[in-house]
Amino acid sequence: MSIELFRQGRHVCVMFARLGDEGGDAVQSNQFLLVNGDTGAILDPGGNIAYNELYLGMSRFFPPHKLAAILASHADPDIIASLDRWMTATEAPVYISRLWERFAPHFCKPGKTSGRVVGLPDGGERLRLGQGDDAFELWALPAHFMHAEGNFQFYDPVSRILFSGDLGASLGTTLNPEKPVKSLAEHIPRMEGFHRRYMVSNKILRLWAAMVRQLDIQMIAPQHGSPMVGPAVREFIDWVEQLECGVDLFGPANYRVPA
Ligand SMILES: [Fe+2]
Ligand SMILES: [Fe+2]
């Protein structure tokens, strides 16, 4: 099912949310399509379960050969396991951390990715994608260790949506990804357990918070669960900034030889 998050002229952001999977084998996950005129980008295309709907959704806006980029926040299976099919069906390069540049081809048949993996440097980059009048910007922001070693988030300066990957993810049966969250308080139970275990450390969250406070963010769109808008954006930044997680919480009790 697709949800239009933003539309202004020919600039459109669409979220594809698989609703049926929560409680099943595969975790609910979101994929994003950014359209600018007759071109666009796919953000975190997802696994093979997500491929058909996303491909058809994209084809409603522009033909597959017009796809300018596939962007991967990191290299987890729910982010990029469908890469082989995208490499076959389109001509677009895939942008991913330099750390995963030579790992991503393992998702594909031999040779499929040659010359088409663009490694993003640790510092990130303001990417200019597409050509001519339809060219557009998308900023790759450092998000390392949230939770992968080489990790990026993507900021669209037109819609001012921050596509945050696994940061801001919410899970559970009370979730409705169609409905953006405006106030964080009642949403925290859907996020807390995930962030405490999947995010690496509070130090990283504080560094991230200081970086994103410099941006005008209208929406945080995570790769699982509901987007956050309005007051929930600042409330989320404040919340994760003080959250203890990952290595902050681990000690000798977590490293015992199993009986
Ligand atoms: Fe992940
Ligand atoms: Fe994920």
Automatic annotation (TrEMBL):
Classification via InterPro entries: Metallo-B-lactamas (IPR001279), ODP_dom (IPR045761), RibonucZ/Hydroxyglut_hydro (IPR036866)
Pfam families according to UniProt: ODP
Boundaries of every Metallo-beta-lactamase domain copy: 28-224
Listed name of the protein: MBL fold metallo-hydrolase
Organism: Pelomonas baiyunensis
